[in-house]
């Protein structure tokens, strides 16, 4: 690696990490303020709130990485330009393409860090955070409706009143239908525990069998229930699609597809997970025309502010296109890639305009 690339990598990486730490501290403070109002509910104490906020830090880092790359690169380039170091490099024959190639090497490191964080660190940390909070605030993990969670499982509809942090079930009802859509049985259980692959042990069971000759009611202390549902699928209650790993997204999407349910929201989240780390390359390309030229101090501050607003706009567009794609049934890949494509086109246009001047 050439000397200037090592130097640029060090300067840009240090600036990006500094910006990322500043953002993480700011968001952690706001998250803590949001949790303070819940301190005192059941057994939820201040140290639980602090633990919840700390466990959410990897997810925040994943969200903020592209913005930090943009602002950090812009700040580092502005500093190099202010000290005429970029001018010296350009006078020595360094082309814009070579400078951009050096920045792409730095972006590659942060793209890899984004992928690893989003795939292996943030999802389990996010899940642990909500398990901690739900356990200390009463034990309920999630309820989609007032009647609890509803899930379709092949020919059955499953209603779970409460899902516990350890994936235990409370208040289970299973409505089983035949191929003609006629109700065949209703099984009610006080609780359920996952014991074997594809199997749950239901306790204190009341089963109502609907037959042509009449209704038969059975009471059983236990019943082994075979189902495609498993704790990994139930774990989606704890983590929003954007915070899930690609493996969990693919598994849950397959479960929804097998049960003929809408998968568009999770397809979009999957493709966002694929595309999102590549946003680091878009951000450094966008920072080059902003920070790669020499400006007076007041102009530099203006450029930094413009970079901050650009990063916020990118973050908002990512969420906007994901929601619009889910509402309007757009192509998941198109919904995920459009924000990055727009900003990449803007970066290319600005680089061309700067070079033309």
Figure out the total of helices.
Answer: 11
Instruction: Encode the helix/strand succession as letters.
Output: HHHHHEEEEEEHHHHHH
Proportion of residues in helical segments: 55-70%
Structural class: alpha+beta
Shape: elongated
Low-confidence segments? 140-145
How would you sum up the major sheet? 6 strands, antiparallel
Strand content: 15-25%
- In spatial order, strands of the major sheet run 1-2-3-4-5-6
Number of strands: 6
Mean pLDDT, all residues? 85
Return Rg in Å: 26 Å
End-to-end distance, in Å?
30 Å
Can you tell me the number of structural domains? 2
| Assembly form of the protein | single chain
In words, what does this structure look like?
With 357 residues, this protein is an alpha+beta fold. It has two domains: 3-137 and 264-356, no CATH class; 149-237. 61% of the residues lie in helices and 17% in strands. The chain has helices at 3-36, 46-55, 57-82, 85-91, 96-136, 231-234, 246-258, 264-275, 279-291, 297-328, 332-356, and strands at 149-153, 156-163, 169-177, 183-196, 199-211, 214-226. Strands 1-2-3-4-5-6 form a six-stranded antiparallel β-sheet, with no helix packed on it.
Topology, please?
Layout lengths: L2 H34 L9 H10 L1 H26 L2 H7 L4 H41 L12 E5 L2 E8 L5 E9 L5 E14 L2 E13 L2 E13 L4 H4 L11 H13 L5 H12 L3 H13 L5 H32 L3 H25 L1
Entry summary:
The chain has 357 residues and is of the alpha+beta class. The protein is 61% helix and 17% strand.
């Amino acid at each position: 690696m050439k000397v200037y690339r090592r130097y640029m990598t060090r300067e840009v990486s240090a600036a990006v990490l500094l910006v990322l730490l500043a953002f993480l501290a700011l968001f952690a403070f706001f998250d803590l303020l949001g949790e303070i109002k819940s301190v005192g509910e059941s057994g939820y104490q201040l140290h639980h709130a602090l633990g919840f906020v700390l466990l959410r830090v990897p997810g925040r880092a994943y969200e903020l990485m592209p913005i930090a790359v943009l602002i950090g690169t812009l700040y580092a380039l502005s500093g190099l330009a202010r000290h005429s170091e970029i001018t010296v490099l350009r006078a020595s024959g360094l082309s814009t393409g070579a400078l951009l190639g050096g920045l792409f090497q730095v972006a590659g490191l942060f793209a890899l860090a984004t992928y690893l964080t989003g795939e292996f660190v943030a999802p389990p940390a996010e899940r642990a955070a909500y398990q901690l909070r739900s356990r200390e605030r009463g034990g309920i993990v999630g309820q989609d409706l007032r009647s609890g969670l509803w899930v379709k499982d092949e020919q059955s509809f499953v209603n779970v009143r409460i899902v516990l942090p350890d994936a235990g079930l409370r208040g289970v009802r299973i409505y089983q239908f035949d191929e003609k859509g006629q109700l065949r049985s209703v099984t009610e259980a006080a609780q359920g525990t996952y014991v074997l692959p594809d199997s749950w042990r239901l306790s204190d069971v009341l089963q109502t069998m609907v037959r042509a000759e009449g209704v038969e009611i059975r009471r059983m202390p236990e019943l082994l229930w075979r189902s495609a549902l498993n704790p990994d699928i139930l774990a989606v209650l704890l983590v929003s699609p954007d915070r899930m790993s690609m493996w969990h997204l693919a598994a849950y999407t397959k479960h929804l597809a097998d049960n003929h349910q809408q998968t568009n929201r999770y397809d979009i989240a999957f493709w966002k997970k694929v595309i999102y780390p590549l946003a680091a390359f878009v951000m450094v390309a966008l920072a080059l025309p902003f920070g790669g030229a020499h400006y007076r101090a007041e102009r530099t501050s203006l450029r930094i502010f413009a970079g901050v607003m650009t990063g916020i706009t990118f973050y908002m567009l990512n969420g906007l296109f994901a929601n619009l794609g889910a509402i309007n049934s757009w192509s998941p890949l198109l919904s995920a890639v459009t924000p990055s494509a727009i900003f990449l086109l803007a970066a290319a246009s600005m680089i061309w305009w700067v070079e033309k001047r």
